[in-house]
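Page 47, continued from p. 46.
Same chain as before, 410 aa.
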Amino acid sequence: METTLEATAPTSIAESVINLERQYLLQNYARYPLVLKRGRGCWLYDANGKRYLDLISGIGVNALGHAHPRITRVIREQASLLVHSSNLYYHEYQGALAKKLAEVSGLQRAFFCNSGTESMEGAIKMIHSHGRRVREDKFEIVSLENSFHGRSIGALSVTGQPKYRKDFEPLMPGVHFVPMHDEAALEAAVTNRTAGIIVETIQGEGGIYPVAESWLRKARELADRFDALLVFDEIQCGIGRPGTHFAYQLHVPAVLPDVVTMAKPISCGLPLGAILMNERAAASIAPGMHGTTFGGGALTCRVALEFFEILDELLPQMRRVSAYFFDGLHKLRAKHSFIREIRGQGLMIGMELEFPCGHLVQEAMSEGLLINVTHGNVVRMLPPYILTEKEADRALVGLGRILRRAKPAA
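Result:
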């Protein structure tokens, strides 16, 4: 296939790829007409060689950008030694990665899987198992309105956005949704039947909304009072993106959960997710109750260990560039009254407009920028952690041009 595409005129490369997918793939994605060929650092190149500043990084996955030399070297070395062995046996990287995650999270144990959704499924199983050990009817879960936790039936059941749930109902029973920051509603929802409380510490797909520290502390207090597990979903907002290892660590002292779900950036584009937990939560899963075929393979775990070595060196730069980028975005807001709010943490950025702005994604592509719009009117940016001030300037110039001609879609 590669040889055939290279032999075709540049304008037909994209057409060939798009037509093939339209013919053979399930048509569940509304893709943009862009065929990407290669990447380097914070930049991606399409089939015709046009360059784009990647401000979405594979929806928060490509934390170190593209073709990072240290990650590329580790992949090459490990692929020649051992890629997969299953969890029937040991290899030298899974325990080392679990130790690193315990050190940076403040929790004690880890389970490795393949994706964020899968980590959420495991957390839900922990909640249910924990509740049943206390009493037979202790299975209810409290989650936030406007939340997003994944695409499987279990993850959809705790997702507080009807648009994702409606086509697949009936879903898992016993889930109650409360408004963000309504502490009275949270207190009313948590009872002796509650087995778990699930919170995205910064709502991602829902529009980049950080959850207030006081609300998190109330959730922790209620989980302790009613013997429920407190689960923080840090799949999009964690593992370095907020400028700390996890978003709950932005608060001092940290509001420590019982369970953390994580995935996106941990293996720099390779599929790896994890559930982190304290000993209390870990006790809910006995041998044989949960497992995975692919999770925690030698290749993905070794890459993740290399990622953490780089991340520890990179965090100060991330915080500096984040402050610089946010400052530039606030200057743009001062020029355009239709920008309602700039919000986020670290390199997790949302710019809310007064009107639906999905059409701005393709306008940004024409400017050589890759962005995303979520919740209808929020420009979402999840740039690679290696973003520099110079690249932030390039993003701000392109965004400025788009915003100067921005108007509601017809």
